[in-house]
Every structure is written in C-alpha cells, then in structure tokens.
Amino acid sequence: MSTEPQATTADGSGAPDADCLFCRIVAGQIPATVVRETETTLAFRDINPQAPTHVLVIPKLHHPDAASLAAAAPQAAADVLAAAGEVAAQEELESYRLVFNTGAGAGQTVFHAHVHVLGGRGLQWPPG
Ligand code: 5GP
Ligand code: ZN
Q1: Does residue 124 sit within a domain?
Q2: Strands 41-45, 34-37: parallel, antiparallel or unpaired by DSSP?
Q3: CATH code for the domain in which residue 97 is found
Q4: 7 in any annotated domain
Q5: Quick check: is 63 catalytic?
Q6: Catalytic residue among 54, 63, 112, 114
Q7: How many domains is the chain built from?
Q8: Residue having the nearest C-alpha atom to atom 18 of ligand 1
Q9: Ligand 2 centre and the CA of 21: distance in Å?
Q10: Does 31 sit in the ligand 1 pocket, CB within 6 Å?
Q11: pTM score
Q12: Which contacts (CB < 8 Å, 24+ apart) does range 68-75 have?
C-alpha cells in the first residue's frame, strides 16, 4: 500500500480544479483527440498509447479517482462506464480491458477519475 501523498483538491463538489490536466482538457485549454463526448463525459486518445486502441474516458466533474466519483456522483460514474462501452463499440473492439488505476502505487498519475479503454491486441492476465 502506498503512503505517498496524492495531489487532489477532493472537496467532493466536482468543481473544476485549475491545476488539473483533465479539467483543463474538459475546458478546452489543452488540446486532445476527442473520440466521444456526452453531456457528462469526455473520451479522448491517450497521449502515450499502450495498445492500438487506448482511450481515456473521464467525467466532466472533477473527482480524484473512480471510487470517490462513485460515492459523490453515482450517475456520473455510471455515465463513464456507459461511455466506455460506447467507445469500445465505436472502435470495433471485440475484447477490451477497462482499467481504473487508483493511487500512485497502482500507477495513477492524473488525479481526475478516468478509465482506460485498452484493446486491439491480446491482453495478458494478470496485469503487471
Ligand atoms: P493514469 O496513469 O493516471 O492511470 O493515467 C493517466 C494517463 O493520462 C496516462 O496513460 C497518460 O499517458 C495520459 N496523459 C497524460 N498527459 C496527457 C495529455 O496531456 N493528453 C492525453 N491525451 N493523455 C495524457
Ligand atoms: Zn480535474
């Protein structure tokens, strides 16, 4: 278990964080290759893809990780999962993996909830 501090605003309101990379993408201040947008979610290609398809799906609300999103805004969490499935369908992925890295020790580097949609190649189990 990681004891490293995590950079979050985490006031639970979902308000944008001016220092958050993904809030800045939502605000249009940083460009991204958007593949799908709904009222509550945004999906864009990962800048450092780990598979032929590697899309990040985020809620437009700022919450630091998936569990805090689900606790504070359960409909938004459901919307993220639905959007991830829609992205997989539009990318024509027969099989794919959804990953929510949670905490620095698990590889989370951006503390705005997001799910990785990975596919287009064989995926090993267990993950690294
Ligand atoms: P995490 O490591 O937090 O689970 O995932 C964060 C992801 O964001 C990483 O896969 C990383 O490649 C991606 N990423 C970091 N900065 C940017 C950026 O500026 N634009 C895009 N599209 N992806 C980014
Ligand atoms: Zn954010």
Answers
A1: no
A2: antiparallel
A3: 3.30.428.10
A4: no
A5: no
A6: 114
A7: 1
A8: 47
A9: 6
A10: no
A11: 0.94
A12: 68/10, 68/12, 68/113, 69/113, 72/12, 72/14, 73/14, 75/40
